[in-house]
Specification:
Elements (H helix, E strand, L loop, with lengths): L6 E4 L3 H9 L5 E4 L5 H6 L7 E4 L9 E3 L5 E4 L4 H6 L1 H6 L1 H7 L5 H6 L2 H7 L5 H8 L3 E7 L8 E7 L4 E3 L2 E2 L5 E8 L6 E8 L9 E9 L5 E9 L6 E2 L1 H5 L8 H14 L10 H24 L1
Parallel strand pairs: 1-3, 2-3
Antiparallel strand pairs: 4-5, 5-10, 6-7, 6-10, 8-9, 11-12, 12-13, 13-14
This protein binds flavin-adenine dinucleotide.
Flavin-adenine dinucleotide binds next to strand 2, helix 2, helix 7 and strand 10.
Length: 298
C-alpha cells in the first residue's frame, strides 16, 4: 500500500523542526531513519498530516564525550555508527555489542537511536540496552503560550520514559534531542544476547546486563533489562538486586535469572508462547550476567 497524503517539512535546524511540530492544528510526526515510521505509513497504521524530516538537522547528530566521561548520543546517531565507531565501542562496549543484533545492515545504516527510543517498541534492542546503562533522554519543544524563551528543554530518566507499548512520555510537540549515557567505571562488565528465529529478525527475547564488582569480587551494582519481556522495555530491578552484596557465583546468577524469568511479563504470539519466552529469559539472563561478571573481573 502507499502512505496517505501528508505535508512534508525538511527542517534545516532544530528550531525549524520544533516550530513545525508546535503547530497543533494538524497532526505532525518527526521522521528520523523512517525504518519504523515508513512501514507504519504504508500499512496505514499511522496517518500523520505532516512529516517533519530531521535528517538535515545537524544539532541532532554526532556523538560527544561528556564532562564525566560518558557519551552524549545525538538523536540522529545511526545504529550503524553504534556498531562500527571504535570510540563508542571502547567507551560503552554494550552499545556496539547490541547494535549488531538490530535487523540488517541496510536498516542499521538508516535507523537512529532517537527513533528507536521514541518508538518505544518492547521488542527493540536499544531501549533495553540504554535502560541497563542508566541513560537519560534530553527532550525539547517550542515554548507554549505564556512561557518565556523560545525553547523549553527537559531531561528524563529513561526508566520514566516508557509508559506502554509504543507509548512514551513525549508530548506530540516534543523532540527527543539526545541521550546521555553515563561513563563505564572500572570494575564494570556488560553483555547482551538474544534469540531470534532468523538472524536479523526481531528477538523472541533478549537480555542486557551490567555488573560492577568491588576489589573483593563482590557485586556492588547490577542492572538487567529485557527485550520482549513485557509491554515496555523493562528494567528488572528486583532480580538485579539479588546479585548485589554477593559474589557472582553460578548459584547467585541462576537465582537472579530465575527471579528475572518469574517477574517478567512476556506476551504470547504466533512466534512463541509466554512460557517459552520465560525460558529464554532465564537462559539468556544466566548467560549474559555470567559474561558481564567475567568481563568485570578482567
Ligand atoms: C525489516 C525491519 C526489521 C527491523 N528489525 C528491528 C530489530 O530487530 N530491532 C530493532 O530494534 N528495530 C528493528 N527495526 C526498526 C529499526 O530499528 C528502526 O530504525 C527503529 O525502530 C526506529 O528508528 P528510525 O530512526 O528509523 O525512526 P522512524 O521510523 O523515523 O521513527 C519511529 C518513530 O519515532 C518517532 N521519532 C523518530 N525520531 C524522533 C525524535 N528524535 N524525537 C521524537 N520522536 C521521534 C517518529 O515520529 C516515529 O513515530 C526493523 C525495521 C525493519 C523495517
Amino acid at each position: 500500500m502507499k502512505p496517505p497524503p501528508f505535508d512534508y517539512v525538511a527542517a534545516a535546524d532544530l528550531d525549524e523542526a520544533l516550530e513545525a511540530l508546535a503547530d497543533t492544528s494538524l497532526e505532525a510526526r518527526p521522521l528520523a531513519g523512517g525504518q519504523s515510521l515508513v512501514p507504519m505509513l504504508n500499512f496505514r497504521l499511522a496517518a500523520p498530516e505532516r512529516l517533519v524530516d530531521l535528517n538535515g538537522v545537524e544539532e541532532l547528530s554526532g556523538v560527544e564525550e561528556t564532562e564525566d566521561g560518558g557519551l552524549l548520543l545525538g538523536a540522529m546517531t545511526r545504529h550503524s555508527t553504534l556498531e562500527r565507531d571504535s570510540f563508542i565501542a571502547r567507551r560503552i562496549p554494550l552499545l556496539a555489542e547490541a547494535a549488531r543484533f538490530i535487523a540488517h545492515p541496510q536498516i542499521r545504516s538508516r535507523g537512529t537511536v532517537g527513533g528507536s527510543v521514541a518508538h518505544a517498541d518492547p521488542a527493540a534492542e536499544l531501549p533495553a540496552v540504554l535502560l541497563t546503562l542508566g541513560a537519560r533522554v534530553r527532550i525539547a519543544r517550542r515554548s507554549r503560550n505564556g512561557e518565556s524563551g523560545a525553547r523549553v528543554e527537559r531531561t528524563l530518566d529513561l526508566g520514566d520514559f516508557f509508559l506502554g507499548p509504543f507509548y512514551s512520555a513525549l508530548d506530540p510537540d516534543e523532540l527527543l534531542t539526545a541521550i546521555d549515557v553515563p561513563p563505564s567505571p572500572p570494575g564494570e562488565g556488560t553483555a547482551f544476547d538474544e534469540v531470534a528465529r532468523r538472524r536479523g529478525d526481531y528477538a523472541l527475547a533478549g537480555v542486557a546486563a551490567r555488573v560492577r564488582l568491588d576489589s573483593r569480587g563482590v557485586c556492588d551494582e547490577a542492572a538487567i533489562s529485557l527485550v520482549n519481556g513485557g509491554s515496555t522495555p523493562c528494567l528488572m530491578k528486583e532480580a538485579a538486586q539479588t546479585l548485589v552484596g554477593e559474589k557472582p557465583t553460578p548459584e547467585a546468577i541462576e537465582a537472579a535469572a530465575a527471579a528475572c524469568a518469574e517477574t517478567s511479563d512476556p506476551a504470547a504470539d504466533m512466534h512463541a508462547t509466554e512460557e517459552y519466552r520465560r525460558h529464554l529469559i532465564r537462559v539468556l539472563t544466566t548467560r549474559v550476567v555470567s559474561h558481564a561478571a567475567d568481563r568485570a573481573r578482567t
